[in-house]
Amino acid sequence: MQPLLLSIIMYRAFTCILLSWWRCLAMWREGQIRQLDKEIKNLKERIQTCKQSVSGKVSPDNVEHLRPQEYSRKMPLGEAPGGAGGGGGGSGTCKWSEEEIEIALDVVRKNGKNYEALANSLDDKTVAQCRNFFTNYKRKLNLPRIIAEYETRTGRKHSRYVRGATDYINDDQGPLGDDQEEGMLPRMGRMGGGHDPQPKRIRLMCGSMMD
Fold it and tell me: Taking Cα atoms as reference points, which of 189, 108, 192 lies closest to residue 142?
């Protein structure tokens, strides 16, 4: 009987110790989990505070001075960036009116292919828009020929912009006249929608032959 009783007592003692240890372990784990939950909650609050602080500092007015100068102007409503309408092209696309094209041609005759000079002559045009003007209106306004005349007049060597357009520069016609310049401009305003300047040039040529 004594050995059996002793074994029962030892078994109960071992069971109590094991249960106590298990409870302590569970409490420790629960405490760790609670601590981790508390830390996670604190971190989330800090993140939210930082987000509010950063969003309060970032605004269009605060980053405007970081933009490049030629892109700092706001594009008017109704103009799609990157569109091909009007010949502006690229960043800040806008249409070129007949008056602006006349001013641009006058600037090109005096300064050649100078983006900055053209942008300074037109208040609502940026350097990027003027750069795209030389690309989009290159053939329509025969800009390489005007620039070639400027480079020849100033004793400059022909640029690659001029050399690459020799296939449609007509050197036999001589310097550009007023009638030819009006023929290159878009058919709008005083020229009318269906007017073609070609008959005017034919009459001028016939008149010179009769003389």
Answer: 108
Distance CA 6, CA 2 (A): 6
Q: Give the DSSP letter string of 152-176.
A: HHTTPPPPHHHHTTTTS--GGG-S-
Alpha-carbon distances of 58 from 51, 66, 120, rounded to whole Å: 11, 12, 32
Whole-model pTM over 0.85: no
Q: Element (H or E) spanning 25, and its range?
A: helix 2-57
A 10 A CB-CB count for 99 gives 11
DSSP 107: H
pLDDT tens across the length of the chain (211 residues): 567 777 777 777 788 888 888 888 888 888 878 888 888 888 999 898 888 887 777 666 666 666 665 544 444 433 444 444 444 444 445 688 888 899 989 998 888 888 888 888 888 888 888 888 888 888 888 888 888 888 888 887 777 776 655 555 554 444 444 444 444 444 334 433 444 444 444 444 444 444 4
Encoding tokens for residue 73? Answer: 């102007």
Q: What is the DSSP string of 33-100?
A: HHHHHHHHHHHHHHHHHHHHHHHHH--HHHHGGGS-GGG-SPPPTT--TT--GGG--STT--PPPHHH
Structure tokens at 173: 């016609």
CATH number of 87-178: 1.20.58.1880
